[in-house]
Design goal:
The protein is α/β, with parallel strands linked by helices and about 450 residues long. It is built from 14 helices and 19 strands. The strands form five sheets. A seven-stranded mixed sheet has the order 1-2-6-5-3-4-7, with helices on both faces. Strand 13, helix 9 and strand 14 form a beta-alpha-beta unit. It is globular.
């Protein structure tokens, strides 16, 4: 069996790669791995048409292995993480493919503390699935399945408890027709007099469809045409967010991290004086840290690796350019709505516009491209000599003036290529050179 878990759980096309049969096996395997009497598992999902099918299958597998399941319905991923710990569940499961289009879905699993499972536990679950065991629980110990769609209010209340008296602003939110449709209006209607919500009508197939944090055109247009102070976009499961300021600049995760770290530094609250990013963090963020005497720690791509570094070395702020931001003192995972609230609080406290705040960091030009490949071909990035030589040649051309990152996606059948330097014409040319070689060698 090929490896099921990527950098963010199990992911695949619903009913093709991620079937109800596989979901049933995942639930059953999770129950076997938990190995606990009266085990209680919380499960939530996003708005995809396949989510309820997969929730039902996973729940059946869990119940057949003796676990009691509470289905909390459509919620953001960080809601599951928060409630698992607060309500002392033994595990949590989120059915979502995050920012991917609706035909994809995924399964993310959290431990009793609301952290994503470590690699060793995921491997144990995979082994159980491969063994294909039948349920071995006698009928009187079968678990129960119940719905409790009101539990998300505890999460909403918690998010609101992290802020104080944010001043009124003209803010428009893009909810990606996803999970935040079930929570964002209940949060931000309590803060602003007239917030506007775009992509707030999920129908099962329109999640992330030309909307949300990966498609900002509609949000930019609305901010521009209606003279709003700023726009905020979440992705399909609301664990990330991006901003648009009133000058129509896109404020990505690197800018968010700079704004937050700068605020914490001024307040002497930046624990261990360190900000955590990834190998894809913009060089401008690294320079910002150097100029402000802040240590920058870089990890592999993936919010799980950012969090591991934060836990290991007791850092409190970290994240990714994509908008996954982790406030470790407030959450155990990336949380788009929490991030939005913290940035809004900073703007309110400093009485500044987002445009004024984001200028603290200079961003280097970046170009990137995704190349479709078969999952089994990804390893050839590290073994195909033509690809290796091409990448090395590009590194030599960039010298110390920029960088190239080529990596297999952990969530999709893609190879991602990114170049960064002051010379945009040069990196555009080099990008096409690398992409052409990879497409010829392993592309589909």
């Amino acid at each position: 069996m090929s490896k099921l878990f990527g950098t963010d759980g199990i992911r695949g096309i619903a009913n093709v790669e991620l079937t109800s049969i596989l979901a049933l096996k995942v639930g059953l395997a999770c129950g076997h791995v938990l190995k606990k009497d009266n085990c209680n598992v919380l499960i939530g999902c996003d708005t995809r048409i396949s989510s309820s099918m997969l929730v039902s299958a996973i729940s059946a597998g869990l119940a057949s292995s003796g676990c009691n399941v509470t289905n909390i319905g459509v919620v953001p991923t960080p809601c599951v993480s928060y409630l698992v710990k607060k309500l002392k569940y033994d595990a949590g499961i989120m059915v979502s493919a995050s920012h991917n289009s609706y035909e994809f879905n995924g399964i993310k699993i959290f431990d009793c503390n609301g952290f994503k499972l470590p690699d060793l536990i995921e491997e144990e679950i995979e082994k159980e699935i491969e063994l294909n065991k039948e349920p071995n629980i006698e009928y009187k110990k079968i678990g129960t399945i119940k719905d409790d769609f009101k539990l998300k209010q505890l999460y909403i209340n918690y998010l609101l408890s992290t802020i104080n008296n944010i001043k009124d602003m003209k803010v428009v939110f893009d909810l990606a027709n996803g999970s935040s449709c079930s929570t964002a209006p209940y949060i931000f209607n309590q803060i602003f007099s007239n917030p506007i919500y775009l992509a707030n009508n999920p129908n099962g197939i329109n999640i992330n469809d030309n909307c949300g944090s990966t498609h900002l055109d509609n949000l930019i247009k609305y901010v521009n045409e209606n003279n709003f102070d700023l726009g905020i976009a979440f992705d399909g499961d609301a664990d990330r967010c991006l901003f648009v300021d009133n000058k129509l600049n896109i404020i990505d995760g690197d800018f968010i991290l700079a704004i937050v770290a700068n605020d914490l530094k001024k307040k002497n609250k930046l624990k261990n004086n360190t900000l955590v990013g990834t190998i894809l963090s913009n060089l401008g963020l690294v320079e910002f840290c150097e100029e402000n005497n802040i240590n920058f720690s870089s990890t592999k791509v993936g919010d799980r690796y950012v969090l591991e570094e934060m836990l290991l070395k007791d850092y409190i702020i970290g994240g990714e350019q994509s908008g996954h931001i982790i406030f470790k003192e407030l959450s155990n995972t990336g949380d788009g709505e929490l991030t939005a609230l913290q940035i809004l609080q900073i703007l309110s406290d400093e009485n500044k516009s987002l445009y004024e705040c984001f200028k603290i960091m200079k961003k280097y030009p970046q170009v990137s491209k995704n190349i479709k490949v078969r999952n089994e071909s990804k390893k050839e990035l590290f073994t195909n000599q033509i690809i290796i030589d091409t990448i090395e040649n590009v590194k030599n051309k960039l010298n110390d003036s920029g960088r190239i990152v080529v990596r297999p996606s952990g969530t999709e059948p893609l190879v991602r290529v990114m170049l960064e330097a002051d010379n945009l014409d040069l990196i555009d040319e080099l990008l096409e050179e690398v992409v052409s070689v990879i497409e010829n060698e392993i592309g589909i």
